[in-house]
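User: quick one
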Amino acid sequence: MDFGLSQEQQMLAESVTRLLRELSPLDHVRQVAEGGSAVSAQSQAALAELGLPGLVVPEAHGGLGMGLLDATIVATALGEAVAPVPFTARNVMAPLALIAAGSEAQQAQWLPRIAAGEVRFGVGVHEQVSRRDGSGVRCSGGALTGTALFVLDCEEADHFMIADEAGRLHIVSAQADGLELIALKTIDATRSVGELRLASTPAEALADDGGAAARRLIAAGRILLAADSLGAADAMIAQAVAYAGQREQFGRVIGSFQAVKHMCAEMAAKNEPCRSLVWYAAHAFDAVPAEAELVACHAKSHTGEVGRFVARTATEVHGGMGFTDLLGLHYWFKRIGFDRQVLGGPETVREEAARLQGWIAVAA
Amino acid sequence: MDLSYGPEYETFREEVRGFIAVNRHLAPKNAGRAARPSKEGVAWQKLLIEHGYTARTIPREYGGFGAEPDILKSRIIAEEFARAGVPGGLANQGISMLVPTLLELGTEEQKRRWIEPTLAGDVVWCQGYSEPGSGSDLASLKTSARVEGGDFVINGQKIWTSTAKEADMIFCLVRTEGDAAKHQGISYLIFPMTTPGIEVRPLRTMTGHAEFNETFFTDVRVPVDQIVGQRGQGWFVANATLGHERGMLGDPDALENRLLALIELMTVEQVGGARVIDLPALRDRLVALQAEVAAMKYNGMRILSNQIKGEPGGMAKLIVKLQACELAHQISALAIDALGELGILYNGSAHERENGSWQWNYMFQLGLIIGGGTAQIQKNIISERGLNMPREPRLDLPKGPSAQGGQ
Ligand SMILES: Cc1cc2nc3c(=O)[nH]c(=O)nc-3n(C[C@H](O)[C@H](O)[C@H](O)COP(=O)(O)OP(=O)(O)OC[C@H]3O[C@@H](n4cnc5c(N)ncnc54)[C@H](O)[C@@H]3O)c2cc1C
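Assistant: Done. Structure below.
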């Protein structure tokens, strides 16, 4: 019995962290973001060298064949560094869709190219969680029509994995007829999301199993967003503690004031159990399928709540400086804000968790 | 991540399950709040010791089961008893705090004399630490003991002494070295509550019961050999066991049990013909607490793994008392809100649910947030030891290590 990360997993986390520390310090993040992109070419290339595009692709298809727990560790490291690198949807959800619901031929066609970084997917499944502004995609006669909102990792995507309203997954080429991609501008400049408008756009359906694959993708996405939020919260706590240890007021460092110490202690006390929860959720996704969806909901909603608390408290510890663009703490604040809402905010996700447990009366 | 325990342990799990299935009818009902275990409680405790399901690693010559320490087996026992909803071994202050202290620092004679009857539930202890002037700042305690003709002669007062009224024995911190530095002048004594000169006055608490007491000492004579550790070492002796108490107060199995009881309550109770759990606002709070309990459960598994590997518990461990006590309190708070107006019924009223135990818990768990080192003291500890932030300035000490106690 060993509840924790293996040595290989710790090394994976360290290599991603080390690489980002070198290639993607805050100045670089800012530069990329201010250039209007959510993709750091140099970070993306270096992470591809580590094999991230094929992280969860089976070895038989040229990937590393790792599990969601490994992906989760990477997500935490990316969140910690607020790295402008597509990962959740492109490197994990898209290949998982093919693994869960693709035919052998589809897997053989797509997975090796995903692992090699030759195709770049965006993923649009948000309508399965919440529909806003009339969004939704219908499928008829092998073509898709409608709007998918909050398509993840859409910048530089050449293909999209889209769920229709029945929850079936389809592959659409970015070049296909009747497809229009509109970038959405969010608070978080380090991630790209878009609106995909489809008008009788030809699509290739995955040899699906009736919507279960989309549920699985959403569970995976939620765990990774939770992991990202956890990493961003770790970074904010570390920055708050460091700042409190050097900023002086009233002739002493502010970290010696108990009000400030207690803010930091509360952040750490709430955040630390999230780590175990996220790890377990990822482990369950890989190994305990009966629990996977429910724990994914718990991980997503709980880190969403704790993330919000940490984001505001760590900012407060920095005083006016925390509020400035100059310090850049807001990159983490916004990353956490993004992670909280995407694929369902806490209330939405908890409602799903309740439904999964039969706690919602079937309408009389 | 490997959460399987392996075949040897699964066999052990089967044994535990088999034991519970065969013997569960012997388990005491309503073991809950009583300070002194009932006759069935004592019999149950003895049966558990005999099979190694409590006091498992305590040597046989001291009345334990004498198994090699095996964290996983202990874990399996806790899991299976919790899952079956059957009370496990007793966990009073004598067993959780005094016994580990004696095992670590007691004389051979003390071990032989006290551990066995304490484990069996025959001897009940109380903890005499806090005083009217010394709570969080425990080391400032003033109850004094001077040596006179082979005895310590104790004078002073303790307060918040849980179960002092029922207890046979007390483990007590007293100042024996009047002129030594604050933390160096304390000794840890053990003596019967029937010793002449002890007066116990129950203190009614907000729950309406008297869960704790004031304990007065007037020329109480205790033979000098009834000391654990050396004279002046009492602070360190006591600190050896504060960790055990905090572990007891943050047990994730207990949280899970409370949550299951809450779920049961919310699915059974009806309001206006609908289940309470069908009310979205209350259900949302329930699921939020469920997620937090899950986080504490896996945090506990992580601590356990670190322990097996001989690694320090780190931040995961430092936060347990603070988080778990708060969470337990919130679980009870939601239960009361789920009961709504029924939630305020108490003292055996008509329509009262579960003997008013949710209200009792709601109040008592606030006490547990305060006892065992208050929430604020926990935050001092987390920030100073976990985050390496500056220590609290000490006006009471010229220099030297600060020590924050609090039971
Ligand atoms: C249910 C219950 C059972 C108990 N059982 C026992 C028992 O069996 N035996 C026993 O000896 N004692 C027992 N206690 C006593 C318990 O250990 C003390 O109540 C506790 O340590 C707090 O001390 P105090 O009550 O004097 O509060 P104080 O120390 O006076 O604290 C009052 C407030 O000041 C805050 N405070 C104090 N110091 C600091 C600081 N340095 N930084 C920030 N805030 C601070 C506290 O957090 C608290 O909010 C029990 C208490 C309760 C509630």
